[in-house]
Amino acid sequence: MTAFDAPDGPLAATEPADAAAPGPGADARLHPDTRAIRAGRADNDTALAPILWATTTFVTPTVEEGRRMATAVGSPRFYSRYGNPTVAGFEDAIAELEGAERARAFASGMGAISAVVLGLCSQGDHIVAQRQLYAGTQLLLQTACPRFGIDVTFVDATEPDAFAAAIRPGVTTMVLAETPANPRLDLVDLDEIGAIAGPITVVDSTFATPLGQQPLAHGVDLVVHSATKAIAGHNDATLGVVAGSAELVDWLYSFAVLQGANASPFDAMNGLRGLRTLGVRVRQQSEGAAELAAFLESHPLVADVRWPGLASHPQHELARRQLAHFGGLLTFDLTGGLEAGCVFVEALQIAQLATSLGGPETLVTHPASTTHVNLTPDELCANGIGPGTVRVSMGLEHPADVVADMAQALDAVAAAGHR
Description:
Oligomer: single chain
Number of helices: 14
Radius of gyration: 21 Å
Helix content: 25-40%
Order of helices and strands: HHHEHEHEHEHEEEHHHEHEHEEHEH
CATH topology of the largest domain: Aspartate Aminotransferase, domain 2
Strand order of the largest sheet: 1-7-6-5-4-2-3
CATH architecture of the largest domain: 3-Layer(aba) Sandwich
Structural class: alpha/beta
Low-confidence stretches: 1-12, 14-20
CATH superfamily of the largest domain: Type I PLP-dependent aspartate aminotransferase-like (Major domain)
Number of domains: 2
Shape: globular
Mean pLDDT: 90
Largest sheet: 7 strands, mixed
């Protein structure tokens, strides 16, 4: 077996028992790939493509009907900050794929995260979160939360029972996890999070997508995605989404209307389009990441390659148990540090230097200078981010071309003397 082989083959993890868990009204016989194509069509009539309701407001037939829609949850034909038929289709599709009762879409992943944190927590509350986080989420917790009197404790998510040990009974309102985590792909045991009683449990599942894992099936209360990434998948939509029980999502609804970070109909339409090909994209990206990870792990200028499918990943067994696919994201460190990293990313010809992931183009990111640039050196160290850390989002190019591109960029690093 190779370093990235799983029992069912080299390209995917052992599919978890909950991988096909359907949402309400879904056909339990269908694979998630099929549901991703069929979901979110209730308002399509006979159209195959999503219908774009490009309107901010709707004619109200009567005063009483206007009153009803203004005070109801999720009115799709009142005012588009409250709801919109195109956006509702996207929300319904995500709810179905996540096995959720309801979902709410936002204008970005951070719009979704901030709505969950600030919409469900109040002055005097306490949050337990992990250190290994997307920097935007970390900065929200470190800067905005203290201003509102919300206390936050950060724990090492890779340590068993770290979340539970940090809970303050009667005070802790929320437990917030991200798995796989940005950028080093640390994992959190979803069964452990789902077993926590009392606080609302939230998992950012952006890197895994709904086809990779379904936290709600493990007992987690809410799942969050930056749908800008792999879900929409074409670098042309900025979206966030939260899915969970009707009670919690309805509770968030009023805050979301006041917050105003609602998803645009155009982006929701592109999000639905992206869902239709999510399964094939994720499989091809995982296949490419497997080839690239194996190449990088064998290269003398590369240290500590992180991809959940590698046997060397410190949580590989958890990945095999928990993830339906290992994904198209990988992270590695160059032994030559910052100078080597700069030469490497600027020498690439196929992979492109850009701050996103999950799209058709292979992208590289230097986290210390982009996604996590606002963290202090100590915070970067706590997140496992060094000056030579590079994150790769595998695209849909032929893997051999991407590997060759990475090889010539590493040759440029060697030629520059950064070893």
